[in-house]
Amino acid sequence: MKKNKQVQMMLAIIGSIAILTIGTVMVIQIAKNHQVNKQIIDQCFESFDTERTVTIKKEGFWSPVFCEKHPGA
Questions:
Q1: pLDDT score at 18
Q2: 57 near 45, Cβ under 8 Å?
Q3: From 9, 16, 65, 72, which residue has the greatest number of CB atoms within 10 Å?
Q4: What residues contact residue 40 under an 8 Å CB cut-off, 6+ apart?
Q5: Which superkingdom, per the lineage (predicted)?
Q6: Rounded to two decimals, what is the model's pTM?
C-alpha cells in the first residue's frame, strides 16, 4: 500500500513538472512570436507612404504576420 502511494506521488510530481515545462516553453515562444510580429509591423509602416493602404494579416496563431500594400484610392 505504501509503495502504491509513492508511485502515485512520483507520477503527480512528474506530471506537474511536465505541465509547467510545456507551459513555460509555450509562453517563451509566444513572446518571441510577438517580438517578431512587432518588428514586421514596424517595418511595414516605416516604408508606408500616403498613396497606399496597408493590410496586416495573420493566417494562424503560431504564424507570423505579413504586410500587404494596396494602391491608394
A1: 98
A2: no
A3: 65
A4: 64, 65, 66, 67
A5: Bacteria
A6: 0.71
